[in-house]
Design a protein that fits this description.
about 600 residues; alpha/beta; 2 domains; 22 helices; phosphoric diester hydrolase activity
Length: about 600
């Protein structure tokens, strides 16, 4: 019954038999979702965010909001809306393949109308299924959060990520079995109700009755169904990867043979990108269709028959509507391709910021790494500052010295004289024995007329104002305010800096942004963890008049991609590598640079 080859054959047969109707429904649904559902969802989520009344920018704020009443409601609505869209599209495709042969556009429109008529029932089914999964996950999530706080709450995230201390492994040893239990319970619940959607749409059952029917039909078959679904998911996921690799390799090679004249190269790239976008949409459609048809095929086999859907009256001009949708798809693809090409600026402008200096070749946050960064061509030196026990501004990322020295002491408890005796170079190599923790003033004296400064404030609790005052005073005394940026992970610290001197440029480092949250900070620049940077997010930030910095980018391929995205500043441990990329690009012709940007866009 559930043999993979038999399932694939049945799915392929149904796609061949109903391909045009499925495509028509997919286009109808996509246009409807774009015109109505996406704006409705965005406005709903933005309204909830406004009701929360707090920005969601830093990690700490995300956790605070996530565990608030409105935050939990926002999460429920966001997940519910996402799954409702999936259910709507799957339901429509199930109706299409269950319809009798006829006018493909009438079949597609009839399925769409029936889905809309059953919208209340589909919303109820989504609420029951998603809500049950969230209720199941809630005690596990709360328990894991408390476990993390108890075992790792006092350890800085940077130390956890880079040093992987024993407490991290102890936490993982305890948390992993708990997480696996949650995964198994969630999978059991999911496959218990796996056939509820076709039962509701094809046999006219109400949501609760459809869930009961699914439980009966899946009894004794859930493991085999799970294997079939996972196998199909892996197959569907592999197709776009293979396509992208092939398209990138063959297309980039073919375009490379074209003459380097913009009159030839730009139209060719426009056609290439349009073909890529259309093919990507087609593959997305096939993935959605394959998943929907897998569900309906399993349902047919479970009940031993194939219910027939007979659509009611539909618009007489369905064909005209469908042709209009298909034309709009082509216009969309060409428009997207043109927009992408328009975004390929020939001249690359980006500031190079050395993360704690050239910290791959010299110990971080030291004079040695700073001097190396200057030699490597960095525009800015990124450094971390904090207060010593006697109120002096010193340069160190960690408060505790154990990571770099093995000495279990906190800078906030030590005097400047004690700090100056600590060797922070020996761990890096014999060439740096005797390297000391510098004061902020020493960095300023060395930086003047040589390099700009990206100063990240690391205040201990209750010392943000004092640290900001002293840093700003030293910048002004050294006449470096025009060559410095003050940065922080905390919006509150940025607010303090702006209150003390509104003209100082500031950067807020963050990892997550919700719609409207950017309006709650006065930061001039948004610093993104580079894995979170996307073209759409960059456009959103740039539209607010802010610059964008990404951190910490060390891969040459990643540097090239973020250059093409249009970031304003790349923070890296390898400033020499980024300087070399920029130098190579300046030596390229326009045609060569366009091809490089195209390949980077495909990779992103």
């Amino acid at each position: 019954m559930l043999a993979p080859s038999s399932l694939i054959q049945d799915i392929a047969r149904q796609i061949r038999a109903h391909l045009r109707s499925l495509i028509a429904f997919h286009l109808f649904f996509t246009l409807l979702a774009s015109a109505v559902w996406v704006p409705l969802s965005a406005n709903t989520l933005a309204g909830l965010l406004h009701r929360i009344g707090r920005p969601v920018l830093s990690n700490g704020q995300i956790l605070d909001v996530a565990f608030s009443l409105w935050g939990l409601l926002w999460l429920l609505v966001a997940i519910g809306l996402s799954f409702l869209v999936i259910f709507l599209q799957q339901a429509g495709m199930m109706l299409v393949v269950s319809s009798q042969a006829g006018n493909r556009y009438r079949v597609a429109m009839g399925s769409l109308w029936h889905v809309l008529r059953r919208l209340p029932a589909l919303m109820t089914l989504t609420l029951l299924q998603v809500g049950s999964h969230l209720l199941l996950a809630a005690p596990f999530a709360i328990g894991l959060a408390h476990l993390y706080d108890a075992m790792l709450g006092d350890i800085e995230p940077y130390i956890l990520i880079h040093l992987k201390p024993p407490p991290l492994w102890e936490f993982l040893a305890v948390a992993t079995p708990i997480a696996l239990v949650l995964v198994l319970l969630s999978a059991a619940l999911y496959f218990r109700w796996f056939l509820a959607l076709p039962a509701m749409m094809l046999d006219g059952l109400e949501p609760v009755a459809a869930l009961r029917r699914s439980r009966e039909l899946t009894q004794g078959r859930r493991l085999r169904m799970a294997l079939a679904v996972v196998g199909m998911a892996l197959l569907v996921a592999a197709i776009p990867v293979v396509f992208t690799l092939t398209f990138n390799t063959l297309g980039g090679t073919l375009l490379g043979y074209l003459p380097e004249r913009n009159s030839v190269l730009i139209p060719a790239m426009l056609a290439y990108l349009a073909l890529y976008i259309v093919t990507t949409i087609a593959l997305t459609f096939l993935g959605i269709a394959a998943n929907s048809l897998l569900v309906i095929t399993l349902y047919h086999r479970a009940i031993g028959r194939a219910p027939v859907f007979r659509p009611s009256a539909t618009p007489q001009r369905s064909g005209i509507i469908a042709w209009g949708a298909e034309i709009l798809l082509l216009v969309f693809a060409l428009g997207q391709a043109g927009w992408i090409l328009h975004g390929f600026e020939i001249n690359d402008h980006v500031a190079i910021t050395a993360h704690r200096g050239s910290s791959l070749v010299a110990p971080e946050n030291t004079m040695a790494s700073m001097n190396q960064a200057i030699a490597d061509g960095a525009d800015y030196l990124e450094l971390d500052v904090r207060l010593s026990g006697d109120g002096q501004v010193v340069v160190s990322h960690d408060n505790n010295l154990s990571r770099l020295t093995g000495v279990d002491r906190n800078i906030s408890d030590m005097t400047l004289n004690e700090i100056e005796q600590v060797d922070v170079g020996s761990y890096f190599g014999d060439a740096f024995v005797g390297e000391r923790i510098p004061t902020f003033q020493q960095i300023l004296d060395n930086a003047r007329d040589r390099i700009g400064l990206y100063v990240e404030l690391k205040p201990a609790p209750g010392t943000a104002e004092e640290l900001a005052q002293k840093v700003i005073a030293q910048l002004k005394a050294s006449q470096m305010t025009d060559h410095a940026v003050i940065a922080s992970l905390s919006p509150d610290v940025i607010e303090v800096v702006k209150r003390l001197d509104e003209d100082l440029r500031t950067t807020l480092f963050l990892q997550f942004v919700l719609p409207g949250a950017l309006n709650t900070t006065d930061a001039d620049i948004i610093g993104l963890r580079h894995t979170q940077a996307t073209p759409s997010l960059l456009r959103t930030i740039h539209d607010t008049g802010r610059g964008v910095a990404v951190w910490t980018v060390n891969g040459v391929g990643d540097m090239s991609r973020y250059l093409d995205m249009g970031v304003d500043n790349i923070i890296t441990d390898r400033p020499d590598a980024l300087a070399e990329i920029l130098q190579e690009r300046r030596a390229m012709s326009d045609g060569e640079l366009l091809l490089v940007k195209l390949r980077n866009w495909l990779r992103s």
